[in-house]
Amino acid sequence: MEKEQIREIIAKRVAMELKDGDVVNLGIGLPTAVPDYLPEGVQIFLQSENGLLGMGPTPAPGEEDPEFINAGGGFVTALEGASCFDSATSFGIIRGGHVNASVLGALQVDEKGDLANWIIPGKKAPGMGGAMDLLTGADKVILAMEHTAKGAPKILKKCTLPLTAKGSVNMIVTEMGVMEITPEGIVLTEINPEFTVEQVQAATEAHLIVSKDLKPMKK
């Protein structure tokens, strides 16, 4: 499966979880593609933890404004009606439970909903930024991620990298299917028809509980 196809499958499915009027924070990488696939009639408000609510798309080359950047330092635009504020206010929004959904990538996630997504082994770590707050402050945490990394499982029995937060993940969406974190473990609720349950389990270190109501992955 091509990278772009994988990215589209995941971003489309995550977009279906977002509701009209939601305040949403997107992590870098794959999560930034989610707004491209929002269902018709659904408008969300993107929040950047460095102090912007109502973030718009990436500006065209030559139209960048150095006053408008996201938390990762990339150029963005602001939609009509957007609000700018200081970091204290921004984290007050996050910690106050006003972010409906946070969509993040992952290096590792485990069956308890623990997440590791800020240290890449062998590379200098810039720090976890606002991820720790977003994981504990958002109403719902969705991981938008490829199922494996060069064939190695990313969904583990227990994370081995330093954690970003413990027990904060609610849902995992990969090109293989949709999984929910429950007190009993990871439940496979939807499966991409291109794969079998056995193939999904083989690509997953953690034990998967197959839902009795397992459905084809929504498109």
Automatic annotation (TrEMBL):
Keywords in alphabetical order: Transferase
SUPFAM superfamilies to which the protein is assigned, alphabetical: NagB/RpiA/CoA transferase-like
Enzyme class: transferase
Domain of life from the UniProt record: Bacteria
GO MF annotation terms: CoA-transferase activity
InterPro entries linked: 3-oxoacid_CoA-transf_B, CoA_trans_fam_I, CoA_transf_AS, NagB/RpiA_transferase-like
Known EC number: 2.8.3.-
Record-stated family: Belongs to the 3-oxoacid CoA-transferase subunit B family.
Protein name: 3-oxoacid CoA-transferase, B subunit
Organism: Alistipes putredinis DSM 17216
Origin organism lineage: Bacteria, Pseudomonadati, Bacteroidota, Bacteroidia, Bacteroidales
